[in-house]
Design goal:
Heat Shock Protein 90; Helix Hairpins; two-stranded antiparallel sheet; globular; binds adenosine-5'-triphosphate; alpha+beta; binds magnesium ion
Length: 245
């Protein structure tokens, strides 16, 4: 456990940044020719009669080009350096609303969702939409790893000595192998079947936490589940014992 945590701490932020820049350049370069492939395959489909032996092949080209387009869109989303809309946000409230729209999802049909929210949690400077996206990514991953019956536990706490809010997202799912744990935040790393996941969920999440000046780490044991821990800094003016509620 200790070593896997260390591995996450050693994860090179610079490497992720470089990957983000490269991803964005590649996506921009691919976008135009891809648009051309889609357009010309559509034109061909208009010209070829449906019974023609070429028809099926052109349909395949068209479908595969659509799939590429989706990947490119994911890449552009991943590398977008949008400006955050920071304001004091209540993490408990955001988690509560995310659970509200996630709990009816088929993934959580037989999953018990437990919450242990610190009622005195101070607000953190954050972008509500981005934090929502971060929690959705973690919760979906948790649900996917449980794959049936299990428990998802969300916990928040305030650490006065470090002046940070702590969020734990734990699942009783499959866990992550020692071999993979150091790679899960890398863009495109996925253990899903081909064509299922983009492997961008956690790298986007890592970027969001970083933009908030926080940290994200994972502890996991194969067959026992995983806990993702996020620390977000509290604004100086909120650091008194009196949370601004
Ligand atoms: N809670 C979890 N339990 C077990 N493994 C996990 C968990 N969260 C992430 N992983 C592992 O990390 C990999 C990368 O996760 P990430 O969210 O980046 O991509 P993905 O879920 O595979 O694809 P996408 O998010 O595009 O659907 C997953 O494929 C899985 O192997
Ligand atoms: Mg995911």
């Amino acid at each position: 456990m200790g070593s896997s945590k260390r591995q996450q701490e050693l994860l090179s932020v610079e490497r992720l940044k470089a990957a983000g820049r490269l991803a964005s350049e590649i996506a921009h370069e691919l976008n135009t020719p891809l648009g051309g492939i889609l357009m010309y395959s559509h034109l061909l489909l208009d010209d070829i009669p449906e019974g023609d032996p070429c028809w099926e092949n052109v349909v395949k080209i068209n479908k595969l080009a659509h799939r590429c387009k989706m990947i490119v869109r994911g890449l552009l989303n991943f590398s977008k350096q949008e400006k955050l809309e920071m304001r004091p946000v209540d993490v408990n409230e955001i988690l509560h609303s995310v659970i509200g729209f996630m709990e009816d999802h088929i993934l959580f049909k037989r999953v018990s969702i437990q919450t242990h929210f610190d009622p005195a949690l101070p607000r953190v400077p954050g972008d509500e939409n981005k934090l929502e996206q971060l929690f959705v990514n973690l919760i979906v991953n948790a649900g996917e790893s449980i794959e049936g019956i299990g428990t998802l536990t969300l916990r928040t706490a305030f650490s006065l000595d470090t002046n940070r809010v702590r969020i734990d997202c734990s699942d009783t799912g499959s866990g992550i192998t020692e071999e993979n744990v150091g790679r899960i935040f890398e863009p495109f790393f996925t253990t899903k079947k081909r064509g299922k996941g983009t492997g961008l969920g956690l790298s986007i999440s890592h970027g969001i936490v970083e933009q908030h000046g926080g940290t994200i780490t994972v502890e996991s044991r194969r067959g026992h589940g995983s806990t993702f821990t996020i620390f977000l800094p509290v604004a100086k003016e909120d650091s008194t014992l009196m949370p601004d509620k």
